[in-house]
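Protocol step 4 of 5: obtain the predicted structure for the target chain.
Materials: sequence only (see below). No template structures provided, no constraints applied. The aim of this step is simply to have a reference model before the mutagenesis design in step 5. Sequence pasted as it appears in the construct record:
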Amino acid sequence: PFDLLFTDVVLTGGINGVELAKAARVMRPGLRILFTSGYAENAVTHNGLLDPGTELLSKPFMADALADKIRGVLRE
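Step 4 output (structure tokens):
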């Protein structure tokens, strides 16, 4: 079992991170999702890839920033 999916917004192979998250939530309702992206947060949300308020950690990030973000997402 797992409580969190951490995925990039942009993936190769025909599926993007948003589609992956939706499929995962079908199998695990209530699953927490944390996205990452090398694109600016405004570009990702304003281009319709992510809904406003979606948890996003912009690249590059340090390990402590990732750990803090994961703790925050899991506390919600």
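Step 4 remarks: Strands lie at 4-8, 32-37, 56-58. The radius of gyration is 12 Å.
Proceed to step 5.
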